[in-house]
Amino acid sequence: MSTLQIRIATKSDATHISHLGKITFTETFGHLFKDPKDLQDYLETTFSASKIAASFHKSTNVFWVAFAEAKPVGYAKLKLDSRSSFIDATSVCQLQKIYVLKEFISLKIGRELQNQLLLKARALGYEHIWLSVLNSNERAIQFYKKNGFDVIGNHDFTIGKEHFDFFAMSKKLL
Length: 174
Known about the structure:
By secondary structure, the chain is α+β, with helices and mostly antiparallel strands. Helix 1 (14-29) packs across helix 3 (49-55). Strands 1-2-3-4-5-7-6 form a 7-stranded mixed beta sheet, with helices on both faces. A hairpin with a 2-residue loop joins strand 2 (61-68) and strand 3 (71-79). The chain has helices at residues 14-29, 36-46, 49-55, 109-123, 138-146, and strands at 4-8, 61-68, 71-79, 92-100, 128-134, 150-159, 162-172. It has a single domain (4-172), classed as Aminopeptidase (3-Layer(aba) Sandwich), CATH 3.40.630.30.
């Protein structure tokens, strides 16, 4: 079994997270893009090392990074004070990202990243956490349902020429 380490990320991990973001987003969603340029533009904009590094300066962002045998294989992002129109509460945070390289999914790294993220959210006193998941991503939907999240609404998102439909899911923390 691989040696797993998960820790709170620092700005020095921005390059790891950038690299992981580009690979894991492509592994998960790349096949949905008809125009490769739309995907490439999104990857460069959303997962550039400079953008990730700048995210560390926002007090509402907390990142984790996971290593297997000292190789970065996954990451998670919690966004604090992130209200949702689907939740009538003020103490709300968002599980914004959990991504693990495909070849390491079987090691349950996603579950461990989520556990650490939820512990942090509870320790900070948040009552609710929410997330968005592509409504056709059955594996992710089942993962979140198994971990106590419920579908609370729908919303959409456009990247380039592609239109995506998402479920909003939430979980009560306290």
